[in-house]
Amino acid sequence: MRENKYDDPHFFALYSAMPRSVQGLAAAGEWPVLRKLLPPLEEKRVLDLGCGFGWHCRYAAEQGATSVVGVDLSEKMLDRARKETPFPNVTYIRSGIEDFAFGSGVYDVVISSLALHYVASFVAVCRQVRRSLSPGGKFVFSVEHPVFTAQGAQDWHYDGNGKRCHWPVDDYFDEGPREAVFLGEKVSKYHKTLTTYINGLLDADFSITALVEPEPSPDLVASLPDMRDELRRPMMLILAATAK
Questions:
Q1: What stretches of the chain adopt beta strand conformation (E)?
Q2: Which of 123, 134, 112 is nearest to 44 (CA)?
Q3: What pLDDT is stored for residue 34 in this prediction?
Q4: Who contacts 220 (Cβ-Cβ below 8 Å, separation ≥6)?
Q5: How confident is the model at residue 1, as a pLDDT?
Q6: Which residues pair with 178 in a beta bridge?
């Protein structure tokens, strides 16, 4: 089994207290953008890679999906997902994304939310996703933006008074592992360039239908003063693609 920070009791407790962990999709700032890029899910077979607490799985079931499979490496996350999922057509499987048995042509829609930056090879996963989709199937996913992941520490550069000066971008073309600090804990992620995400889809025989660098809404910026700094650099990247 691959290394899994989310089953560490201390880290899991911190993560579980985050607004998006408590309130779900309503507290996920990028969700309105991601939702618009999803196709109609009624009577679709849906796969969620890195499903976490199962928010997107339950959303798909609510929208009338025929079947939903959620995949995650964290047993603690899956335990909660199972407890909070009343739909009999939703199945949760413990597996690393890279190790999952995708199958061939068995899904109509594949979703992934902020999980693929934990995967070493996007290209390999992209090919597996393409193989698993029916003709015309959709792949919609969000990741941490390459500008956000490049430098590794994932923090601002501060002046002597603690003011945020700028977001450092360094070693951009040096793809590979980065050790970031998330919730005060060291977490391993993988930096990939925008070129890798785009060409990974194109080389796997996808047509790209949307690319969005979501910004916080004006209401969110007005309600949370620190959120204004999120307009200074992109934090997330969302891509939608169709299997040819």
A1: 45-49, 67-72, 90-94, 107-113, 133-144, 157-158, 164-166, 176-182, 185-191, 206-212, 236-243
A2: 134
A3: 96
A4: 29, 227
A5: 42
A6: 189
Helix (H, G, I), strand (E, B) or coil at 218: helix
Q: What is the pLDDT of residue 3?
A: 67
Structure tokens at 215: 């910004």
Residue 71 bridge partners (DSSP): 49, 93
Q: Which residue has the tokens 């890195």?
A: 50
> pLDDT means per 10 residues in the chain (244 residues)?
79 88 85 96 98 97 98 96 97 97 98 96 98 98 97 92 95 95 88 98 98 87 79 96 97
* DSSP reduced 3-state for 47: strand
- The three-state DSSP-derived secondary structure of 184-203 is CEEEEEEECCHHHHHHHHHH
3-state secondary structure of 17: coil
CB atoms within 10 A of CB 27: 13
Q: In the structure encoding, which two tokens stand for residue 137, read together?
A: 């199937």
The reported pTM is 0.93
Q: Spell 10-24 as b/e; 16+ CB within 10 A means b.
A: ebbeebeeeebbeeb
Name the β-bridge partners of 181.
186
* Torsion over CA: 137, 140, 146, 147 (sign): positive
Residue with tokens 């360094």: 170
Q: Which residue bears the tokens 């520490």?
A: 153
> Residue holding tokens 């199962």?
54
